[in-house]
Design brief:
elongated; 8 helices
């Protein structure tokens, strides 16, 4: 007695699926062998393994979106670990304006001071000798010297910023 058409179709599907799975396993094995051969010929390649793990854990969105990020001039990418820790901090605390006097404002002030101390300590900068000023970005930091009382300094910095294609704001115009 001949088999029903649906049984034949299912059988053909299973055979095709098994063949495809075998081909995929073969391709994976070929890639693994090619990688092993590459590493044997270029052992220094593995010296970046820690960076590869960091990219996989904290910057996987680059691979997911098939992107490369090279613009580290004014800022860098945030790590997923930073986002997770920041989210938890915001969920567990209440932060207010650090220039006011209330519990939420004191929490902000304390956080800013802990951050400032940690950065000065990291650079082994004596706290009484160095000041750490937070700016919104690199351009904001470049504008700080324009607040200096010396007009020649303002003029020089303004010219430098202009030569770099940056706007120094109204201070440079007055200098």
């Amino acid at each position: 007695m001949p088999l029903p058409h649906s049984v034949l179709s299912l059988g053909a599907f299973i055979l095709a699926f098994c063949a495809l799975a075998g081909a995929q396993e073969s391709a994976v094995a070929q890639r693994a062998a090619a990688y092993d051969d590459f590493v044997r010929r270029f052992p220094a390649w593995t010296s970046t393994a820690a960076l590869d793990r960091l990219r996989a854990s904290d910057f996987s969105r680059l691979d997911q979106k098939r992107q490369v990020y090279l613009d580290y001039t004014g800022g860098n990418l945030y790590a997923m670990r930073q986002v997770t820790q920041h989210e938890r901090d915001l969920q567990e605390n209440v932060f207010g304006n650090p220039h006011s006097a209330n519990p939420s404002s004191q929490a902000s002030t304390d956080q800013v001071e802990r951050t400032r101390d940690a950065i000065l300590d990291y650079f082994r900068a004596p706290h009484g000798e160095y000041e750490l000023i937070f700016t919104p970005n690199a351009s904001g930091a470049l504008r700080l010297p324009l607040c200096a009382p010396s007009d020649p300094a303002k003029r020089q910095i303004g010219e430098l910023l202009k030569a770099q294609g940056l706007s120094a704001g109204p201070q440079a115009v007055r200098a």
